[in-house]
Every structure is written in structure tokens, then in C-alpha cells.
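Need the bound structure for 2-acetamido-2-deoxy-beta-D-glucopyranose, inputs here:
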Amino acid sequence: MASPSQRDSTTTLLSPTPPSYRRRSSLRLLLTILAFSATLTLALLLCVFSFSSLIPSFARRSHSTLHRPTVILISSDGFRYGYQFKCPMPNIHRLISNGTEAVPGLIPVFPTLTFPNHYSIVTGLYPESHGIINNFFIDPVTGDAFTKRRHEARWWLGEPLWEIVSNQGFNAAAYFWAGSEVSKGSWHCPAEFCPKYDSSVPFEKRVDDVLSYFDLPIDEIPVFVALYFEEPDSKGHDFGPDHPEITKAVARIDSMLGRLIAGLERRGIFEDVTIILVGDHGMVGTCDQRIIFLDDLSPWIEIPEKWVQSYGPLLAIQPPVNISAAEVVAAMNQGLSSGKVDNGQHLSVYLKEDLPERLHYSSSYRIPPIVGLVDEGYKLVPKRPMSNICGGDHGYDNALLSMRSIFVAHGPQFERGRKVPPFENIQIYNLVTSILGLRGAPNNGSYTFPASILLSDT
Ligand SMILES: *[C@@H]1O[C@H](CO)[C@@H](O)[C@H](O)[C@H]1NC(C)=O
Ligand SMILES: *[C@@H]1O[C@H](CO)[C@@H](O)[C@H](O)[C@H]1NC(C)=O
Ligand SMILES: *[C@@H]1O[C@H](CO)[C@@H](O)[C@H](O)[C@H]1NC(C)=O
Ligand SMILES: [Zn+2]
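Answer from helper R.:
Posting the output first, comments after.
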């Protein structure tokens, strides 16, 4: 936005400009400013439009303080780090300015997908240890398929926060969080605190239901509440991260936070409750013909579709037992490096045990023997033709900045206005159990992390 006017002022400074040109130039500057303010007004309107849904709907109830530390953990799916600057977002920025923020952002686990990351956040475990190694995979022992609708406990390892809280005698609530419908320990997804997933439930209702928990008799109020919103992820897939639709979707999340804050304030408990706002992963645009066709490898090796459990951004291949995975990898990499496969240099195929260790993606028997990493913004599809639809995706290397999400925490134990360096989302588990004063299960977070970020009790 600044560049055209900058160019004009440089022109004025450097060259003796005839008056007529200068008039045209200032007219252009004026037009630029007008266009800029129109854009800004439009952006503001988009935001204001969604703020208008903030309607008080609960009666005031008088309890001035809660009996115990209480955490509301909110996930906004696909909230890429930086989205918070797209337009004025007064509620998120209120939490940021009076709370603690990770800059630049929260590091997701690999693969940077929704189910693996949500379950890492609530278990403190890498996917290889919590078992949800992808949004979809086949158990190589039983041949059974994991999908987002499987709620049998055998899939979901570790001890999620709601189970920890419940096992230690307190109420917990989990509103649509991945894994919450799974019975574990004393947690059986109680109807009043754990609705069955239904994406059609309006965000407003989700917030109001969570607020209603705080109208319960004080000893029944859940000390831990997990709350999930699907946006801006789905808009990110449809339009990519830079589209005005994303601005609208994020402004809507901001207005939901406003609704939550207002409800907590009406109950006199906003300063008592800890709010932790996170996302599971970021988003990157996938346009411009950046496609790799697996079928292009057929001169080197034929990969039947039934071997493939997922394509890009995470390629997962389970060849039959009588085929050597090492030979498949060697043949694929030979083809990819031949220079004869379109975008071949943007796919790297590994035996899972040879993947970079920082990905922590090898030790589960559920991870298929062959894993391919696709470069940022590239897509891998079975074969031509593929209509080139522009949009966004995630699932890539968790070291990429575009895969980062947000961490903002506001509450009695978080310093106001503090910035902390980025950390992996597996650290959140120990952070929450520390705030709650409860014992967590063994996990991959560091035991010294909470003390490095929380204010001490004295
Ligand atoms: C931050 O907290 C202080 C003290 O409670 C309050 O006065 C101020 O309005 C808050 N700032 C924002 C941006 O909400
Ligand atoms: C592997 O086994 C399948 C059937 O189990 C058979 O059709 C296929 O030819 C075998 N492939 C090799 C390379 O032995
Ligand atoms: C993660 O934690 C689990 C449970 O304590 C442990 O079994 C696993 O080895 C840990 N992984 C890493 C990379 O430390
Ligand atoms: Zn997504």
C-alpha cells in the first residue's frame, strides 16, 4: 500500500519535475490514499459486521471468585500466525496486550494436520506416541481404518487433559475437541460437558454453552474446558491464506472471544479464568501449477493407489509385505531426481526410520514404512489431469513459518504484555496441569517449561 506514494515522493525528490507532472503525481497520491482508505473501510466493515453478533444472553450470577484455578483452552483451526494482524481484532489483542504471547507463534507437531495436532496439545505427546499419526491411516496389524469418526479408546493413546482432570475428581468439559468422545479412565464424555461433534452448531451457541458451565453450583464448574472452532481452516483451504474471506473468518473468531470475555465479565470471573487461545497449524497457498503427479514415476516404479494412505502434503505408502520398502524408496528417488518428473525435486521420499529426527515421526508401528515430504505450497496427486484449483493447505514440515499457529494466554498466572519465544505445542500439557495444580501423565513436554512462562505463586 505504501509503495506507490513512496515512489512518488522519491520522484519528487530526485528529479526536477514539471509542475503539471507534479499535479498529476499529487492527484495520483490522493487517489492512492482514497483507494487505501476505501480498502481499510471495507476491511473494517467486514470486521464490524461480525462484531455485531455480540448479544448478551445470560443473566448475571453472583460469585465473585472461583474456588480453583480454571482453564479454558480454545482452538481456532488453521489460525496461521500473523492472521491476528489482518484487521483490528480488539478481543484477541486485548488478550495479547494483557497476557502472554508466543512470538512468532506456536510450533505445531509433524504432520501439521488437525487431528495429530489437537491430540498433541491435550496429551503433550508427539503423534508417534499418542497414536493419531494422521487424519486417516490403516492399522497395519488389524487392517482397520482410522477416520475422524473413530472413538474407540484403542486408537487414542496417552492421557488427555480432560481425563487427568476427571481422574483427579474434578469436572472437565470438552466441546468438539478431537478425541473428546473417547472413553478413557473415568472420562466418558458426559453429555452435559461433552456434546457429540456436530459442525453445524453455531459458534455463538458453543460459546454460550461454555458460559453456562459457569452458572453451575461453584463446585460443579469444570476446571478445564476445551473449545473448538473449525475456522479459519476451512476458508483457508478454499481461498488460501491471503483472501478477504480469511479476514472475515478470523474477525468472526475474534468476535466469539469477545462474546466469551463479555460473558465471563458479566459473571465477574474474567480475571480469574485462564484463557489459552491456540491453533493447531498454519496455512499456505497452493496455486501456480505446483503439482507433482505420482503417476509420473511409473517408468521407475508403479505405485498402485491401494498402497497409498495419504498423498500430499504428507505422502504415506504401505507396500504389500512381499515388496521391499527400501527398493520402492530407491526407485522413487531415482525417478524424482532424474529431472524428468515435473516438480520431482519438491518431493523427498524416506523410509520412516530415515526421516529427520526432529520430526519425531518414526517410532509408531502405525506410521507406514514409506513417508514422503512435499515442499511448502506443493501438492501431490495420483495422476493427470488435475484441475488447478487455487486454495490453501497444511500438513507440511513443522519447521515452516507458514505452518505456525498462535499462542495467547491470559489469566492470573500469565504476565501482562509478555512475549515468549516460539515453542512446540506439546509443551501446553504441562503448562495446563501446572496451572490447575494437577499431576499429568508422562509426556514429551519439558517439566521446566511451565516455570519459564508462568508467574510464580508468590
Ligand atoms: C488490561 O488490564 C488492565 C488492568 O486490569 C485494564 O485496566 C486494561 O483496560 C486492560 N487492557 C485491555 C486492552 O483490556
Ligand atoms: C506379492 O504378493 C501378491 C499376492 O499376495 C502377488 O500378486 C504379487 O505378484 C507378489 N509380488 C511379488 C513381487 O512377489
Ligand atoms: C514421549 O513421551 C513418551 C511417554 O513418556 C515416551 O515413551 C517417548 O519416548 C517420548 N518421546 C520422545 C521423543 O522423547
Ligand atoms: Zn485443514
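Comments: The chain has a mean pLDDT of 88. The radius of gyration is 25 Å.
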